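REVIEWER CHECKLIST
Item 1: Sequence provided? yes
Item 2: Single chain? yes
Item 3: Sequence as submitted:
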Amino acid sequence: MKLPTNPVIETQILGCMLMSLEAIHETERARITEEDFYSTRHKIIFQSIIELYQKGDGVDIVTVSDDLNTKGKIEIISGGVYLMDLISGVASTTNLKYYIKLLLETSRKRKLFLALLKTSQIITEEKGWEEVKVIAKEEIYKALEQQEESESIGMLAMTKEIESVIEKAHETKGKNRGLQIGFPRLTKICPVIQKNYIVLGGAPRMGKSALCLTIMYNLSRIEKKTSLFISCEMTKELVGMRLASLSSGKSISDLYAGRYRKEEVYLEELAQSKIIVDETGSTDIDAVIAKIKECKRQHPDLCFVGIDHIGYLTGRKTEMRQQELTLISALLARLAKELNIVVLIITQLIKDAIERKPGLSDIRESGALAQDADVVWFLYRNPEKTPDKADLRIAKQRNGEDGKVIGLGFENKQTRFFEQEGGWQ
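Item 4: Structure as written out by the authors:
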């Protein structure tokens, strides 16, 4: 089987671009890149034309030939004569839009072909079925994706958007900014905004997983939107029992001890909630990201993803674990913005931070988490002295004041957090 290619269309487009500035504008509007060309020399010529255009230089046979000669690439394209052949071979510049359509169709077919080829190779590797399935779905989905709309925005349009945000904030007196997670004092000063990458840090036994599940349970009740909890540590049954305890108000230990019949545990509200729990079979970051994207496709209202926790995730093998976590963190931060969701990642802190108030430098193994995060929260609780109280400190937020601490109450029987009276410290 041969890769889908269309060399004639590639030459037609490049010839038009060498002849007409409007042709370059048309390819930009279509968001064509060098990767849409199959031929190596066509990629090189296209890249040269675009670079000259973006620098404000003229684009013609002479300037492109000189640019490629300076870069030592003129021989790769068979010399300046080939540029002349491109122009002389143009059938009609009026058909450029049709040529672009054919080029993009061929490019997408080629990407799908390569995705299917990669999928077939993955199947032969020593990977579990679940991991193969999610990676295959992601590879094929990427190939089938339509090109995204440009995110560029001029200052006039941006100003109008900012004015709209300011006016809406004025009308609501700053309320309803971001997702409502059942912690009004927290979200008043540190709103949970979609596209945010949040790091929740704390020492063992602080209740990080419990806080994340409390947020998701509250989110489901208030916002009525889908959220996803990826558990790398707890089983689905344990996560389910925690949510059942939150919903029914019954103690987890009592539920496990068999002190209630199922009729006595009111779970109708939980059954109707839009919380999805994934006891992940693969901790490979590519598989996890593919799973999140699949969830977003199936549930377009997905707005919040909690991952417990980053210590279990693996990425590309590097010499140091810190480098591996740096890559994982960057991918998760980008994912939040790409899917317009909140990604909350739970992380452990170094041992020295257990007996004191933690700082950003106390995040275990990677400072990249603090750097990538839009928001960093630190949870501190003393299970022996004050088991029913906790502090949540805003160690970082990009769009507001950090350093504030909110007092939380903790109901151990239900592993539930709630805000205490008294406000900020």
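Item 5: Key structural point noted by reviewer: The chain has 16 helices and nine strands.
Item 6: Recommendation: ____
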